[in-house]
Design a protein that fits this description.
Order of helices and strands of chain B: HHHHHHHHHHHHH
Distance between the termini of chain B: 54 Å
Strand content of chain A: under 5%
Helix content of chain B: over 70%
Largest interface: A-B, 43 and 50 residues
Oligomer: heterodimer
Number of strands of chain B: 0
Radius of gyration of chain A: 21 Å
Strand order of the largest sheet of chain A: 1-4
Number of helices of chain B: 13
Helix content of chain A: over 70%
Structural class of chain A: mainly alpha
Order of helices and strands of chain A: HHHHHHEEEHHHHEHHHH
Largest sheet of chain B: none
Radius of gyration of chain B: 19 Å
Number of strands of chain A: 4
Distance between the termini of chain A: 14 Å
Strand content of chain B: under 5%
């Protein structure tokens, strides 16, 4: 009875076209945002904010970016971390070279730089597909990290190759404590998630899905393949770039290029697999899962007093096993479970 | 000029080692359409098991080797049973991701059993320059590398014979051609896959021993898989000769680039040069050197 849309009639085009057509969804999202923006910063400890919630939000954003590319446009990519690195290092350089540049604008510019790199490395996708493309995106991963390590200009000639992110100041208001940083990240992620949600149901999103499902057919019925694929690469890289900038500015503080290694790319890939490929909600669920799982495993290992080497290897094994388990049991990820839950709620209390 | 040839030959011989790993990929991809990302982890697992057994039981290489072979076969069978069978008929990308999970699992398992420290692996061949080549042509080439190339050649010949002369080999080729047709004429698909993974495990063992003896048995061995990827792109995912030729090209060009282009741009280009090379090649020929021509229909 809780989740029933009976009686919710749409009487205008506007009502018919809204993002969340069901009243309960809108209320739940609003409640969630209020809790996240008001109650969480008051209630959560600085540790929870800076070690769990901020990375969760940032990884959600990166996963969102990868999900646009892989889940919606069907182009498998293993270079997510490289795009994040471009976003972070570009933002750093923009703030450094242009005095007085607003931080948020620098993030946007960082994202745009990542989008440019994304387009450049997305070009091969016009000729090759599938695993060949996945292997080719590895080139992005290695090349970008190599560039950032080898070109001293990009790290402002710092001797160790490590950059220290400038303090975030917006309109004279410094975002320097965990709760302020959290709110900033939350705002950015909420806005961008909403944009993504809207984008994937627009004609852009539909053209991505058409290309994903069968690109030859999509081309035949008139989608411009090149434009669609490159747009997917650009938008996806933009999201990853902004996530990378936030990763450097709101989470780590000091970054070296090696922080954006292949391992990070894989972790974000796992987020979308476990969360659900081709689902906005899935990006968040997957990120929560991957961020929380090591914390949980750590707690368990600690309570069992396992040595750290054993614990870290067990973590690897549990990670791998869970991925396989998920793929076997629910290939569509946590988002699909949520969807099934909603279907059940619709029928509740009558099972038929 | 001598230096050039030394670099070239050294590159070609290290390319042989890449090819060895790439063959493991090709075996599985060709017959089951699974892009096995766990091949690198299997290489590590094999080498570590061999060294670990020698350590823990205090036995010689010749006793540890059969034990490791048995372990690899069991591992192959287990992978087929636990991971692949429930995933039959899923899209390729799902299977690929499952093998990434598998890679994590195997890496964790290997280190849990035998520890993560770097270990030495002594093979009965020494890593010294070959005296004969030094005397006659004044070129420094490691004896070990030549031996590795010979082993690789032997392995490929064995595999080729296995595929062309035995019943299992014929079944393997049938499955590679068309799963459903193979099933229809009564070839037990799952048993063939199990055999295949076991063989891939053995190839991983050979690669693991050679690489392990070269660089020490350590976690970095898993990155061998990343080295094999450009080889695969270049040679085509479905072709064994492609893996070898691709390996040679990648090995040689990578070393030459590092020596001749590296100093100009700051060095360390070995990491990405093969990928960029393979990528440029793909733009010309999207299916790789020996890959099957992809025909796409609606």
């Amino acid at each position: 009875m809780l989740y029933r849309e009976a009686g919710q009639f749409k009487t205008s085009y506007q009502a018919d076209g809204q993002i969340f057509p069901i009243l309960q969804d809108r209320l739940a999202l609003l409640a969630l945002l209020v809790i996240a923006a008001v109650i969480v910063p008051l209630a959560a400890s600085p540790y929870a904010l800076s070690a769990i919630l901020i990375p969760f939000l940032i990884f959600s954003l990166a996963a969102l970016g990868l999900n646009i590319l892989t889940g919606y446009a069907g182009q498998l990519s293993l270079g997510t971390a490289a795009f994040m690195a471009v976003g972070a290092f570009a933002s750093y350089n923009f703030i450094l070279r242009i005095p007085g540049l607003p931080v948020l604008l620098a993030f946007v510019l960082g994202g745009l730089s990542a989008a440019l790199v994304g387009i450049a490395f997305g070009l091969p996708s016009l000729r090759i597909r599938g695993f060949y493309l996945a292997a080719a995106t590895l080139a992005t991963q290695f090349f970008v990290v190599w560039c950032l390590t080898k070109i001293p200009y990009l790290t402002n000639y710092s001797s160790s190759g490590v950059i220290t992110a400038q303090p975030i100041v917006i309109l004279g208001y410094a975002f320097d404590t965990p709760d302020r940083k959290y709110l900033l990240v939350l705002a950015v992620v909420a806005v961008m998630a909403l944009l993504a949600k809207n984008m994937v149901r627009s004609n852009v999103g539909r053209s991505w899905m058409a290309v994903r499902d069968m690109d030859v057919a999509a081309e035949v019925i008139g989608f411009r393949l090149m434009r669609t694929k490159l747009l997917a690469f650009a938008v996806s890289s933009f999201y990853c770039g902004v996530a990378g900038a936030l990763y450097a500015y709101a989470y780590l503080g000091t970054v070296e290029p090696e922080a954006y290694n292949l391992d990070l790319s894989f972790r974000i890939l796992f987020m979308i697999i476990i969360g659900g490929v081709g689902s906005i909600l899935g990006s968040f669920l997957g990120a929560a899962f991957i961020v929380l799982l090591p914390v949980l495993l750590n707690v368990i290992a600690h309570s069992l007093a396992l040595p750290t080497s054993v614990a870290s290897n067990l973590e690897l094994m549990v990670f791998g096993a869970l991925i396989i388990f998920f793929l076997i049991v629910e290939p569509h990820g946590l988002a699909r479970l949520w969807q099934i839950g909603k279907e059940k709620l619709r029928l509740w209390p009558f099972p038929h | 000029m001598n230096f050039f040839f030394e670099v070239l030959i050294g590159g070609l011989l290290s390319g042989v080692m890449y090819a060895l790993v790439a063959i493991g990929f090709v075996l599985i991809y060709k017959a089951s359409g699974v892009f096995n990302f766990a091949q690198g982890a299997m290489v590590y697992f094999a080498a570590l098991t061999c060294v670990g057994v020698m350590d823990k039981l205090g036995v010689s290489l010749w006793i540890a080797l059969p034990i490791t072979v048995a372990v690899m076969i069991v591992l192959g069978l287990a992978i087929e049973r636990v991971v692949l069978r429930p995933l039959v008929n899923q899209p390729e990308i799902t299977l690929f991701m499952a093998t990434i999970g598998l890679a994590f699992f195997i890496e964790g398992l290997a280190q849990l059993m035998f520890g993560a420290q770097v270990r030495r692996l002594e093979l009965p061949i020494e890593d010294v320059p070959s005296q004969y080549l030094m005397d006659h042509y004044n070129i420094l080439v490691s004896q070990f590398d030549i031996m590795a190339a010979l082993v690789c050649g032997l392995l490929v010949t064995t595999l080729a014979l296995l595929f062309s002369k035995t019943k299992v080999g014929r079944a393997l080729r049938a499955v590679a051609d068309d799963h459903q047709a193979a099933l229809a004429v009564g070839i037990p698909l799952q048993r063939i896959w199990a055999v295949l993974w076991a063989v891939a495990g053995l190839v991983a063992l050979v690669a693991g021993l050679l690489w392990g003896a070269r660089n020490g048995v350590q976690f970095a061995l898993t990155f061998v898989a990343l080295k094999a990827l450009p080889v695969l792109i270049l040679g085509g995912f479905t072709s064994m000769p492609g893996a070898i030729v691709g390996g040679l090209i990648i090995g040689a060009s990578e070393k030459l680039a590092e020596v001749y282009i590296g100093p100009i741009v700051g060095g360390g280009i070995e990491g990405w040069f093969p990928y960029v090379l393979a990528l440029l090649f793909l733009l010309v020929r999207p299916e790789g050197l020996f890959g099957e021509k992809i025909i796409r229909r609606i």
